[in-house]
Amino acid sequence: MVMNVVSLAVKILQSGGVVALPTETVYGLAASMRSETAVRKVFQIKGRPLLDPLIVHMLDYTWISEYAHTDDLKVDVKALADAFWPGPLTIVLRKKSIVPAIVTAGLDFVAIRCPAHEIFRKILRAIRVPLAAPSANPFGYLSPTTAQHVRDGLGDRVPLIVDGGPCNVGVESTILDVTADVPRILRPGAIPTSDIAGVLGVTVMDYSPSTGPAAAPGQLKQHYSPNTRLILVESAEDLSSLIGSAPPEDVAFVYLKRPTEQVHERNIFWLSDGGDYRAVARGLFEMLQTLDKSGYNTIYCQKAGQDGLGITINDRLTRAAAKFVP
Ligand code: AMP
Ligand code: MG
Hints:
- By secondary structure, the protein is α/β, with parallel strands linked by helices.
- It is 29% helix and 15% strand.
- It contains ten helices and twelve strands.
C-alpha cells in the first residue's frame, strides 16, 4: 500500500514514535505531547538534557485553552495570535495539568507556538494533538534548515525525515513570556521585539543574556556551534582588512552582504546580496552547516548591527562562537 508522507508521519506519531518535520524556522524533531515515552525519545535522540523544556506546537489559537491558562493575563494574547500565528512567535503561559512534566522540564509554564509550514499544519490537522518539538539536531550543534542537515546530524536515529524544502525563516522563534506583569523576551528570534510591543501597545522587556538560566531555561551561553573554529568580526571593513591581499586558503570569510571587491576568491562568502537581515537569517545556519563540512580550519564571520533581526543574528553567532573564545 502506498501511503503519503503526511499519513505516514501521523501513524508514527500516533504509535509513540518521533519524526523530523519542516517548520518555517528550522527543522523540528516532533513527538506527540500526550506520549511521555515519545517525548523521552526526543531528548535521547538529540542528547538534550531533561532540564531543557520543549516548545509545544498547535494548529491555532483555539487549541491553547485546553493546555494553558489564558484568562488571568495582563496582555492580549489573542491579539498576538492574530498578528503572528501561524508564525515564529512562541508564547510562554501557565500550563494546565494535562501537559506532562517532561515536556516543560517540570516547570509550571508551557511554551506554545503555531508553526506556519503547510506540511506541519496538515499533520496537526490530522492528528489533533499538540506536538512537542525542539530543533532536529544533536544538542549544541548548528540548527538544521534542510532535511539533509537533519540526515547529516541525526540520520538513522530518526525513522522518518519529512523533506519540506529549505526553511523560509531560518532562525528559531522569538520566545515571549507573558506570565509576569511586564511581558519579556526569553529568546530573541525571528520576530523583533518592537513588532511585538507594537501589537500589544505596552512595553516589552527586551532579551538580556544576564536574565540568566532561571528565567530562560535552556538558553545556554554556548549553543548552535559548528565544529570548525568560528571567529566573529565587527564590520565588513574589519573582515576586508583581515583578508588582505593574500587570504589563506584554509580560512573562510563570510560577509553579511555581497562585497564590492575580492569576490573572485574561492573562500569568500556572503549571506545576502543586499544586506537585508531577513535574507541573512534565512541563510545563516545553511552557510555555517556547509562551511563546517568543507574542511576549513577557521571561519571568520561578520556580525550584524544590534537592531531588529540583527539582535537575533548576533545572538546565534555569539553562541555559535562561544566555545572558541579563549
Ligand atoms: P528549541 O531547541 O529551539 O526547541 O528551544 C526551546 C527553548 O524554548 C528552550 O531551550 C527554552 O529556552 C525555551 N522554553 C521552552 N519551554 C519553556 C518554558 N516552559 N519556559 C521558558 N522557556 C521555555
Ligand atoms: Mg535548538
